[in-house]
Amino acid sequence: MLVPKLQKSWDSSLRKFKRIQRLKKTLLQVGSLVVALVSFSCAGMQIPDSESQGARLYSKKCSMCHGLPHPSRHSRIEWDHYLELMKGNMDKKGVPYNAQEMKTIRTYLHRFAKGATS
Ligand code: HEC
Predict the structure, then answer these.
(1) Using an 8 Å Cβ cutoff, are 58 and 47 in contact?
(2) What is the CATH number of domain 53-111?
(3) Which atom of ligand 1 lies closest to the CA of 87?
(4) Where are the chain's structural domains?
(5) pTM of the model
(6) In a mutational test of the pocket of ligand 1, which residue from 77, 82, 91, 100 has the highest number of ligand atoms less than 8 Å from its CB?
(7) pLDDT (tens digit per residue) in 18-44
């Protein structure tokens, strides 16, 4: 009477063990997929027309204090607002930033802004 019962519990432990093994494997696969995706999206974090003068100036001036937001993150109106705000931030920190540079960056951001059509 006892033996079949033991056999049964052994069977179910074995099944559980196998299930956990399978789960581990799946988790590992999902994990590496996530890692691959994250590194891919970081590598893909290129700004548009990255060789242009505007893009170069943008990444030079605007990545000093924080990560570089993608131009499509904000609309033209929002960029104008942020550019004014950042001018203040930069002045406070003594980061050299003149009107011509601001214009170049503004033109660049407007070109690829959210909802920009041309
Ligand atoms: C002197 C440091 C400094 C520089 C240089 C700077 N920023 Fe910022 N930026 C900040 C700080 C600090 C914040 C946090 C919000 C705040 O209090 O102004 C911020 C926030 C932002 C935000 C809003 C948050 C977000 O991630 O959407 C945007 C957009 C932004 N900056 C764009 C720019 C752009 C464009 C430039 C280049 C013209 C720039 N920043 C250069 C300091 C800086």
Answers:
(1) yes
(2) 1.10.760
(3) 38
(4) 1-45, 53-111
(5) 0.72
(6) 82
(7) 998 899 888 888 777 766 666 555 544
